[in-house]
Every structure is written in C-alpha cells, then in structure tokens.
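#lab-general

N.A. 3:47 PM
ok so I finally got the sequence cleaned up, no stray characters, all 383 residues accounted for. can someone with queue access submit it? mine expired

B.Y. 3:52 PM
send it over

N.A. 3:53 PM
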Amino acid sequence: MPKILIAGGGFAGLWAAMAAAATRHRQEADNIAITLVSKDPHLCIRPRLYEGARPEMLVPLQPLLETVGVTFEHAEISNVTPTASRTEQAATMDHDRMILAMGSHVAIPIIPGAAEHGFTLDAYQQTARLDAHVSKLDKTAPGAPTLVVIGASFSGLEIATSLRDRLGSDPEIYLIDQQEVAGQSLGENLTHEIKSALEMANIQFLGGESVTNVTADQVVLRSGTEIATQTTIFATGLRPSPLVKHIGVPASDGRLKLDQNLRVVGETGLFAAGDVGIAAADDAYMTLMSCQHAMPMGVVAGQNAVLDLLGKALRPYAQPDYATCLSLGASNALFTQGWDRTITMSGTEGAAMKAQVNETWIYPPSPDAGREAIFDAILPTQP
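B.Y. 4:20 PM
back already:
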C-alpha cells in the first residue's frame, strides 16, 4: 500500500493532511495510506498566544484526522531522511512520499542568561509558564512591575501592546530592538501608526539597542543601561526546525528551497510546507513564516503528494494576495493589503477584523461538520 507521511501537526501539516485526504477521495485512490506524526496532540493556534494561554487555542488533532481518514501518530520525530523518519521511540516510519511541516521556533539570542531567565510565547506551554510567572509576581519587589519585550517586529509589537490589558495592572513596559524604529521591518506604511500606538499605550521603546545579559532581576543593554525586571520576553524571530538542516537545498535563513510544486529542491518524492520551506508566492515575493502561507502551502503539498503517487500532473503553488493584521492593543489593529502593507483598516475596525482572523479564519473545520464538508472547505473545487 502506498504511504504518505506528514511530519508535523501545525497549520501546514494539518492542512496538508486534510488536502491529501480530500484528493485521495476525489481521485478514488483509497489504497493510499496517509499518516500524520506530531509531538503534540493538539494544533496550537499559535498566532493568538500574545493573548495568553487559553484552552480554546488548542484544537485536538485526533478527532479531525479520524473524520477524514488520516492516521495520527503521537510521537516526536528525531531524524528525517527523504526515505524514512525515526521517532524518539526509535521506530522507523517508511513512506513513499513525505511532507515536511515541522514548523519553526523562536530563536533566543545566545547571550548570558537569556535561555535560563527569558520567556517566549513560542508554544502553549511556554505561554502558560509566562502567565503563571506574572500572576505570582510580588508587585512590591524590585523589578516586578516592569516587563521587557525584546524584538519590535510583528510578534514583539503584539505581545508588548497586549500586556497591560492582559495583566489588569499598570506595569512599566519596555520594548527593545536593534532597529532604530519600532516595526521598521514591516515597512514605512506602518511605522507612524505603530509609534502612535506605543505612545498611547505608554510603552517605552528603546531603538538601536541590544541585550548583553539577562538575570532573574535585570536586563543589561549594549549601551550599559540596566533595567530592573523579573520578566524578560523574547520575540526575536523564527528559525525553522533543525531536523531539515541536512535535507535538500537550504536558503540563507535555513529554510528549504521549494520548487513551484512545493517539492524540496534536490530531492525526489519529498514535499514541504509552512515555516520549514520557502517558495515563490508570486513573481516578486517569497513565502514568509506565517500561518497565512502555511495553510495554502499545506493544501498544495497535500494535493501534490497524492497526485505524484498517482503519476498525475502536479498543482503549482501561488499566493499573490497578501494581507496582514497587526494587533496593537485590545481596541486597535492595523489591517493591511498588498506586499507594501497598505493600511485599509485601523482602530476598532481593525481590531474587529483581527478578532475574526484569530477566532475564525485560522481555525480548522470542526470534525462535527463531517468528511465531505471538511473536504469542500479545504478544496472548494474538485482537482
């Protein structure tokens, strides 16, 4: 029996599994076995973690996969090759086609004390750890009312501007970045609005700075500035899963280069989707590490793994439409369209759009909808 193995149960992996199952069904190829392997039993709605860890941000994988006829293996993959994968239990999982979708992690800088004393919102458990830490702080202790966020790009901005609302108190909040302007990497169209939002939220932005040391009660900056704090949060960019470093052709940021059909360049029968791979979204732009790209990439990779097994023409990936929605507090968000990030909504209107994105658009279909409805939601048109 031909086998498709999907490594990773995040947005890319789950959407790949649903699309592969839909394509198998529509191609009347029920002899193809599809298995998804993930170290977590849930899909974590990771883009929402700046809100704090909430149970509704964990979507169980097993019920949905069972509904669409995909086998779920709860295991951590320790090694990947183009022909087989090995789990932490040393079990080898052979396959005929494979989709790499192991995602990414926050890259904490290698500086003294950062890994030991820093926090991230990289996963649900890490977010819950931060929530518990903050809830137990003695607000009278030195540095307790002060929160420091390192990294002023998309994630860092959302984290910093959410903290005051989440904590229900009036902490002193610092946002630190090596760039001189907050949100500089997001483009000039957003920087003025971001600056205004930080001022309104009374967040102190320190640009052109970097951290040289982190302890349990302070952060030391390159300039020599010392900030007394018991809470240092890193939002310092993403790195792809290290499991892919010996596979295919790597891009400069460590992601795998993918062709138009999301096959890994330099390999045969190996596809990738989401943060581990980079592909052309259109003629001028490449995919970013974002669920906005991970989900459609997963759909195409899932389709193509099945079509490749059947010897049929593969579907090219393209995603020319690009939009973002940046939360800047409970009642403010910037919704942008186009690669130049032209703002089309802001304030409460933008916040309403952000809520719709976070609470509806990025969730998978419910298993209660039934197999056919799930297939139609993932692949609206028959391949």
